[in-house]
Amino acid sequence: MSATLKGRAGLPPLPAELANRAVFPDDRGYAMVRSSYMAAGSPAVVIMATTADEVAAAVRYAADAQGPDGERLPVAVRSGGHGIAGTSTNHGGIIIDLSRLDAVDLDPDAHRVRAQAGAGWGKVSTVLAPHDLTITSGNFGDTGVGGLATAGGVGYFARSQGLTIDRVRAAQLVTADGRVRWVDAEHEPDLFWAVRGGGTHVGIVTEVELEPTRMNTRSGDASIIYQEVGYAVTDLGAFTQAWGEWIDGAPRAAEGFLMLNATGSGRTIVRARNVWAGDDTAAATPVLEAALGLGQVFEQQAFITPYPQIVPSPGQPHLGQQAIRMRDVLVDRADAEVGRAMAQALADRTTLLGEIRALGGAVSDVDPSATAWAGRHQRALVGTWLRPAGTVAEDASFAPLQQLGTGTYAAYSSDVRPASAELAWPGDTGTRLRALSEQVDPEGLFTQGHSLRRR
């Protein structure tokens, strides 16, 4: 490895503490770090930081580095590398990679866990489960702590625990001036507000302290009841109405995700993943049995399992292998209108499949002004997976659902245009978040991807 950017005339040398952390295009191993899961990249350098101080040094370096014509280089930040928009890599720029910051330390007596940004949520769940503890997260274990714990976190315990950001009690943050800060409700509370739902608007989160939830299971290993149901649906509007009423009326321990595929014969195959937070079969059975009455069932299974078993962590290298595009909106409720709009979207040849995730419950308990996630009243996330057919075709395919959206989960969308950011951080939330971003990052170092800042 070199102490300078090879072949990039006029760029400054790397500081001494980063000389052995940089991977360049002609270095062995570059192919394994150049890309994310969602996009292939060709960065000028990938800085594999191992401490918060090294992240700070990388930030200072990135702020000063210029291209051969004096242009600012794009800067990407990567924790798990699963960002849907693919903006954790770039072409010709700098990547600050946090994957080596992957420690997870639990203090069960204090009811706190510290997790570094590069750790996957599968690792977090594995550390917590033997103590009968969980933290709501996404549904894939390789997703990085740094992305999920700052963006939102719509997981299998959303209705019972809220979003992942609602469990964050403190965060270590590196701002654009290269300072390392610990922020919480008492120390720099404005920045603490921003990192919970504001993504990278105010810097790079390198570590979070979270409060897990005790499951109180008989087994003591954070077991949950997991149900999968396959439905053959001929009237998606009626089915979605029934499903929405079922999940809204269910106890908060119940959570439901739907994956939807059009068959081309007027039917939709709907696969439901239902989770009961805990192993209380007496309480769960009537609720899960009611789910079987929502439509024509062609297969179903239910079992008790420790939570880590349903957040798989394959640990595959990231080579830009997932070429799909994704869109989502938050809707006030999952009802017949949403179902009919989903049927229209699924009928478009650009759409591969649809998705509906239940919100509400503990998510809605939080005041909309308490964090930078403003979507507290909506009771469902609705999205589609798309062929990469270009913006015009993708917009057209998602249009029936887009018009019903009253918000969006930015981190679950490939759309990084300003209108999407304004839907994710609307009104007073957006005004406050933009002002904080301009205050701590006046030069716009962290404006790649989903950002309220004009670029």
Automatic annotation (TrEMBL):
Domain FAD-binding PCMH-type as annotated: residue spans: 38-215
Classification via Pfam families: FAD_binding_4
Keywords for this protein: FAD, Flavoprotein, Oxidoreductase
InterPro entries: FAD-bd_PCMH (IPR016166), FAD-bd_PCMH-like_sf (IPR036318), FAD-bd_PCMH_sub1 (IPR016167), FAD-bd_PCMH_sub2 (IPR016169), FAD-linked_Oxidoreductase (IPR050416), Oxid_FAD_bind_N (IPR006094)
Superkingdom of source: Bacteria
Cofactor: FAD
Family in the record: Belongs to the oxygen-dependent FAD-linked oxidoreductase family.
UniProt name for this protein: FAD-binding oxidoreductase
Originating species: Tessaracoccus lubricantis
